[in-house]
Design brief:
Number of helices: 6
Distance between the termini: 31 Å
Order of helices and strands: HHEHHEHEHE
CATH class: Alpha Beta
Radius of gyration: 18 Å
CATH architecture: 3-Layer(aba) Sandwich
CATH topology: NADH Oxidase
Structural class: alpha+beta
Helix content: 40-55%
Length: 190
């Protein structure tokens, strides 16, 4: 049975979660914690039970290979200029761990969209879990959602779509809490 106190602790965790890359660059995130975070993602709603989550954990020199693959995909797609491609080649070295999260495609258009929604909800579960562990995270959207070389590098199917690239590392500082506009709820009564 949950209590008001449980809700308040959860609400504090949600409000504490920040987008940040202020991390200790020399402290690796253990693989078993990455696996636990990915497992949390699989608890997101997926009412048709398609289990669309795909995960790749990128560390070490793999981060350079990820940047190179994405830049190559940008060139092949004639996307971005050389400055954007150069940034893509180096930016994945900002944190010790990178998680590439994709969703499986589906022939049914509604389930195709719901797969993406389930993966996005799963990423939020991961971000909250990372916050609870003291990890800093930054959810990035790649320039291309179906980059062939990147999908191959990550071991994903050619039809999978990348939903997010999450930078992950041990928090090395705090970031300011951004304000939020007041919540507006419309009541619809009988």
């Amino acid at each position: 049975m949950t209590t008001e106190g449980d809700f308040e602790r959860f609400a504090q965790l949600v409000r504490r979660r920040r987008t940040s890359m202020l991390v200790d660059p020399d402290r690796d995130v253990p693989r078993h914690l990455v696996e636990r975070l990915c497992e949390l993602a699989t608890w997101a709603p997926n009412h048709k039970k398609t289990w669309p989550w795909r995960f790749a954990h990128v560390t070490g020199e793999g981060r350079t290979r990820l940047g190179a693959a994405l830049a190559d995909d940008m060139i092949a797609a004639d996307f971005g200029d050389e400055g954007k491609r150069a940034k893509t080649r180096s930016k994945y070295r900002r944190t010790p761990s990178i998680l590439v999260i994709a969703c499986a495609a589906h022939d049914n258009e509604m389930l195709h969209q719901e797969n993406r929604d389930a993966v996005a909800a799963g990423i939020q579960n991961m971000l909250l879990g990372a916050t609870a562990l003291g990890l800093a995270t930054f959810w990035s959207t790649p320039a291309l959602t179906r980059p062939p070389a990147t999908l191959r590098l990550c071991g994903f199917a050619p039809t999978d779509r990348i939903v997010g690239i999450v930078y992950l590392g041990w928090a090395a500082g705090d970031v300011p809490v951004p304000g939020r506009p007041p919540v507006s709820v419309t009541d619809v009564d009988s």
